[in-house]
From TrEMBL:
PANTHER family: 2-OXOGLUTARATE (2OG) AND FE(II)-DEPENDENT OXYGENASE SUPERFAMILY PROTEIN-RELATED (PTHR47990). Residues 173-193 are annotated as: Disordered. Residues 246-347 form the Fe2OG dioxygenase domain. It comes from Vanilla planifolia. This is Fe2OG dioxygenase domain-containing protein. The lineage of its organism: Eukaryota, Viridiplantae, Streptophyta, Embryophyta, Tracheophyta.
């Protein structure tokens, strides 16, 4: 359990004191009550074992469950997903170690400023504040070096990947490109010290990186398999868009939600939809994730043996609204810190997203256009508008 000391790192109260003092007592009560009335739900729970070992009939039933949950909820949980529990625990341990580096050190590192975030520097009200810190690590930063060779990365794939790809088109299996050497300029966010630790400024990242590489490799494979299943369900080859997914845009985000003892109802992560194809999430036992279901916020009951999967904006656009990118948020806890790890499956910036069916509900757009539009809206209004910007 976190001590109250942890709530002062990062220094949210200091940095956002004007937002907290502008909060009226009435709004404070409203926020706190609103948070109390949220119902808990069990997300659809899907056993992926059937995809691997099932009969043809069982595989079809599993595909139908995945597709139905993606349409009705935009969220589901998977068990028997093939990602080793020890690996997930190991990455959690390294994640905690990384976040427990003192704030000054995390924030002062020029290089880490690119991957380390906290709060929301442009928030003009408490509704725009996310009481959390995160490392946002592009896949390319984890795999583009000699520490993870071609063969090593391949061996990180889910053990059953080969079997399932017999059921899906071959190209669902992610293509692994040869890694550039240490001298590659794309490794500019760090360097190797004399003991071959990858150093990001003054923070050693070697242990973290090894388990993160593994978890990112496994989550990437799982994301591609699920995206393949969902594409095939709509009559398209399983690799029809994942072949454009790129190491430089896919990323792993490590989230820490410090306790927030003095204002119940504060967002750990403000309401949003994910700007990707699909997200794989591993959360701890604390809880706090809520999502919109039938126009109401519902709280997701944590299930330690399951991974959460959610549909992102790009999949909704590609599927012409068959699959739903659903708004979600994280609420802080008064006493306890919370951790999660999310993997985001994204295409290259140049990829065009068009609907798989006519008449299309959306204009065609590139991922770059989508990202730029989101950033522009957030900068101008404080909020993401998202897909509705591209409606025809
Ligand atoms: O931490 C969580 O449960 C959700 C994280 C999330 O929604 C995100 O990183 O986009
Ligand atoms: Fe999200």
């Amino acid at each position: 359990m976190a001590t109250l000391q942890a709530s002062y790192d990062p220094p949210f109260e200091q940095r956002y004191s004007s937002l907290f003092s502008a909060m009226t007592e009435a709004r404070r009560c409203f926020k706190s009550c609103e948070n109390k009335v949220v119902e808990q739900c069990e997300l659809p729970l899907i056993d992926l074992c059937c995809l691997q070992h099932g009969t043809e009939q069982e595989i079809s039933a599993c595909v139908a469950e995945i597709s139905k949950a993606s349409s009705d909820w935009g969220f589901f949980q998977v068990v028997n997903h093939g990602i080793n529990n020890e690996l997930l625990q190991a990455v959690r341990k390294e994640q905690k170690r990384l976040f427990h580096v003192p704030f000054e050190k995390k924030a002062a590192s020029k290089v880490l400023n690119e991957s380390y975030r906290w709060g929301n520097p442009t928030a003009t009200s408490l509704d725009q504040l996310s009481w959390s810190e995160a490392f946002h690590v592009p896949l390319s930063k984890l795999v583009e070096d000699e520490a993870c060779s071609e063969d090593e990365f391949r061996s990180l794939s889910l053990p059953w990947l080969n079997e399932i790809t017999q059921l899906l088109p071959q190209s669902v299996t992610p293509a692994r490109k040869p890694k550039p050497s240490h001298g590659d300029p794309s490794a500019q966010n760090g360097h190797f010290d004399s003991t071959d630790n990858f150093v990001i400024s003054t923070i050693k990242f070697a242990d973290d990186r090894e388990v993160m590489q593994k978890v990112a490799g496994a989550m990437s494979d799982l994301a591609r398999i699920l995206a393949g299943v969902l594409a095939e369900n709509l009559g398209y080859p399983g690799n029809c868009f994942t072949e454009n997914c790129s190491k430089s845009t896919c990323f792993l985000r490590l989230n820490r939600y410090p306790p927030c003892p003095f204002l119940p109802g504060t967002f750990g992560l403000m309401p949003h939809t994910d700007s990707d194809f699909l997200t794989i999430l591993h959360q701890d036992h604390v809880g706090g994730l809520q999502l919109m279901k039938d126009s109401k916020w519902v709280a997701v009951k944590p299930n330690p043996s399951a991974l959460i999967v959610n549909i992102g904006d790009l999949f909704q656009a590609w599927s012409n609204d068959v699959y739903k990118s659903v708004e979600h948020k994280v609420m802080t806890n008064r006493m306890v810190e919370r951790y999660s790890i999310a993997y985001f499956l994204c295409p290259s910036y140049e990829s065009t997203i068009g609907s798989c069916k006519e008449p299309s509900h959306y204009k065609k757009f590139t991922f770059k256009e989508f990202r730029n539009q989101v950033q522009e809206d957030v900068k101008r209004t404080g909020y993401k508008v998202g897909l509705s910007r591209f409606l025809l």
